[in-house]
Amino acid sequence: MVDTARQKALIEAVAEAVIAHAGELTALDQAIGDGDHGINMKRGFEAVLADVDAHAAKPLPEALKAIGMALVMKVGGASGPLYGTLAMTLGKELPAEPSRDDLVRALGAAIEAVKARGKSDIGQKTMLDVLVPVRDALADGGDVAGAAAKAAEATVPMKAVRGRASFLGDRSIGHMDPGARSSALIVAAVAEALGEA
Amino acid sequence: MSDNVGIVIVSHSADVARGTADMVRQMVGDEVPLAWCGGDPGGGLGTNVESILKAIDSAWSERGVAILVDLGGAETNSEMAIEMQPAERQGRIVVCNAPIVEGAVMAATEASGGATLDQVKRTAEELSPG
């Protein structure tokens, strides 16, 4: 059961995790991208926080769609449409009171939507390299936050073939992907907020 | 409303987008609906869906709209903006896989002669390697 207070705490936990790590995300992006990931994500999640009471009052699917739209409009860069598509697809696929199985299925659908939006797949040093192992851990009943952190770490030796980082070719190797890191932060915040309830 | 396909220029930099639009206007004239946007929601370098939606509205033609983009985020945001359009518009907006400045000039030149959206896109994309 996701009630208003819990939903608010969940949204705040995710937004605050992203905002608190904006500097780190920007530093990662300066290494292999255009250095705006932290700033962009911070702006997007500040917009989400500004409307947190309205988001919390909505049924979960509607809240996810509204948050996704806010991210699309406010984040900018490629991350806005990618994270926006992720949230909006989860909103489309999840029932108001999801079970673990619902989450696994909805995350699978959201992963496919992100692949289509980014014309990307796993192994290409992107957020997908975190989201796919997270879905697998969720399906197996494993440690979701741990899987996310490990998966983000595993993007370090990968070579980017999508996005700005792909211009660097082999020089993208040796840095963690900023989108993988932000995805891991969000997953950890969700897992912690849900685990505490 | 113009009978010609409209052109939208989406760059990470407002200066690049504006300059590209200036070149199109000077080389092709005013017979083609033209709009540009650039910059993120905070005013820095980047692209954002909201300004792309406005640019599509501004350059809208019943013949369709061809979008020219620079880097990845411009393409992703443009595709998002297309999906957010009413259903009757969706099949009539395309992103061209072409260099932004040359592509915009070529696309607008083709459009000014009354070409279809498909012809405009193909002409712009002749500039792309591969």
Write up what this structure looks like.
- The complex is a heterodimer of chains A (197) and B (130).
- Chain A has a single domain (4-196), classed as Alpha Horseshoe (Serine Threonine Protein Phosphatase 5, Tetratricopeptide repeat).
- Helices cover 71% and strands 0% of the residues of chain A.
- Chain A contains ten helices and no strands.
- In chain A, helix 1 (4-20) runs antiparallel to helix 3, helix 3 crosses helix 5 and helix 7 (100-118) packs antiparallel against helix 8.
- The termini of chain A are close together.
- Chain B is of the alpha/beta class and 130 residues long.
- Chain B has helices at 14-28, 49-58, 72-83, 87-90, 100-112, 117-125; strands at residues 6-11, 34-38, 65-69, 93-96.
- Chain B has a four-stranded parallel β-sheet, sandwiched between helices.
- The radius of gyration of chain B is 13 Å and the shape is globular.
- Chain A binds chain B through residues 34, 36, 39-40, 43, 72-78, 80-82, 84-85, 117-118, 162-164, and chain B through 40-42, 44-50, 71-73, 76-77, 79-80.
Q: Which characteristics define this entry?
A:
heterodimer, A: 197 residues, mainly alpha, Serine Threonine Protein Phosphatase 5, Tetratricopeptide repeat, B: 130 residues, 4 strands, 48% helix
Give the structure's gist in a few sentences:
Chain A has 197 residues and is mostly helical.
List how many beta strands of chain A DSSP finds.
0
Round the mean pLDDT of chain B to the nearest integer and report it. Answer: 93
CATH class of chain A, anyone? Mainly Alpha
Biggest β-sheet of chain A, characterized?
none
Major beta-sheet overview of chain B:
4 strands, parallel
What is the CATH homology-level superfamily of chain A? DhaL domain
Q: How many H/I helical runs of chain B? A: 6
Q: Percentage of helical residues of chain A?
A: over 70%
Which structural class matches the secondary elements of chain B?
A: alpha/beta
Low-confidence stretches of chain B: none
* Number of distinct beta strands of chain B: 4
Q: N-to-C SSE series of chain B?
A: EHEHEHHEHH
Please report the distance between the alpha carbons of the first and last residues of chain B.
36 Å
What CATH architecture of chain B would you give? 3-Layer(aba) Sandwich
- Look at the helices and sheets of chain A and give the structural class: mainly alpha
CATH fold-type name of chain A = Serine Threonine Protein Phosphatase 5, Tetratricopeptide repeat
Binned strand content of chain A: under 5%
Morphology call of chain B: globular
Oligomer: heterodimer
CATH class of chain B: Alpha Beta
